[in-house]
Amino acid sequence: QAFFCLLFCIPRGSSCPPSCQCTERAGAKAVLCSSRHLEEIPKDIPRDVVFLKLDANSITRIPSNAFRHLSHLEEIDLSRNAIEKIDRAAFKGVAAGLRTLDLSSNRIRSIPKEALLALNAKLRLANNPWHCECALQEVLWEARLDPDSVQDITCHTAPREEYVGKPLLQVLDAGVNFCSVRQRTMDVAMFVTMFGWFAMVIVYVICYVRHNREDACKRGDYLKSLPSTQAHAE
After folding, report:
1. Which residues of 94-129 are buried (b: 16+ CB within 10 A; e: fewer)?
2. How far apart are the C-alpha atoms of 104 and 130, rounded to whole Å?
3. CA distance 3 to 30
4. What span, in angstroms and rounded, lies between the C-alpha atoms of 138 and 55?
């Protein structure tokens, strides 16, 4: 009976990943997986976890629904990993309750704005090789960034060489608007496309008129070459 009680009476989701340490912090469950050589987010994290530390590992990607079953989650530390890709729905299911998300010191160049703008959490995005673009600008203006780390969001690459190596906030304060640059590029592309179609229509009309004119001339020459009815009567 004791064996079956242990087997069936333990609440689901209360186990601890073998590579991590589970403890209590201020009456809330904390899962500590720091410096465990992890290459992906563990699958067996307890459902009642509140604080999750996954820092200093080798995680390269945050897939969709990575934390969806962790409805009590308030803090995630993913700093000092090798993260390069974050899916649009990476934080789906925890957006409402999450208070802190640390993505600093990774290898993130770009991120879908949908993945972060739905969060109410305070974000740390410093020390990543960012490509300065419209999506990152929108995250900077609309997301809840940690004010102490905003200056460390630096342009590793950018549309213009003069922005490289500068803090994104400094570039934007100088009047640069990456979103308007993208809009202008789209407008130019649309203009070129419309001009191309217009030119094709003009060429088609010219060819059509010229072809009809040539047919009319040939028909006229043919009619002139025919014997007249008066000549037949004589």
Report:
1. bbeebeebbbbbbebebbebebbebbebbbbbbbbe
2. 11
3. 27
4. 26
CB 30 within 8 Å of CB 53: yes
C-alpha 20/C-alpha 35 separation (Å) is 10
Q: Are strands 21-25 and 28-32 parallel, antiparallel or unpaired?
A: antiparallel
* Closest alpha carbon to 87 in 105, 104, 64: 64
DSSP, collapsed to helix, strand or coil, labels residue 182 as helix
What DSSP state is assigned to residue 152?
Answer: G
Domain boundaries, the chain: 21-176
pLDDT reading at 193 higher than 70? no
- Of the chain, the percentage scoring pLDDT greater than 90 comes to 65
Q: Which residues pair with 32 in a beta bridge?
A: 21, 53
Residues 70 and 42: beta-carbon distance below 8 Å: no
* Helices marked H in 34-176: 113-117, 134-142, 168-173
**Do the beta carbons of residue 144 and residue 166 sit within 8 Å?**
no
pTM (global) more than 0.85: no
Least confident segment among 134-138, 143-147, 180-184, 198-202: 180-184
The CATH classification number of 21-176 equals 3.80.10.10
- Tokens 């995680």, located at residue: 59
Contacts of 93 (CB under 8 A, 6+ apart): 65, 67, 68, 69, 70, 71
Least Cα distance to 136 among 105, 167, 160 occurs for 167
